[in-house]
What does this fold into?
Amino acid sequence: MNYAIVRSGGKQYRAVVGEMIDVEKLPVDAGAEVTLGEVLLIARENGDPTIGKPLVKGATVKATVVKQYRGPKILVWKYKAKQRYRRRQGHRQYYTRLKIEAIEGI
It folds into this structure.
């Protein structure tokens, strides 16, 4: 199985053709075509991976934006004993769901 390790939003993701990945929010609309250019590694079926130093030259990953959405709410509690200090804060992260169409540069 061919796959690539790509970097988006400071995180690394494993991109396999036909699968979906959720990345940090990208400023594009649903249905748009996206090119991920920061490819760190390409693994081929025949076994020899290409490891970038730090990026693989000429390699890109083409993806289509499926949807923009927000993740589940995470509650953050701050508490100090015997101080009457209590704070509650909620957070919902924005995500972009991508469907991997092609890995170019294999």
Observations:
- The chain has a mean pLDDT of 95.
- Residues 61 and 103 are 5 Å apart (CA to CA).
- The first strand starts at residue 3 and ends at 8.
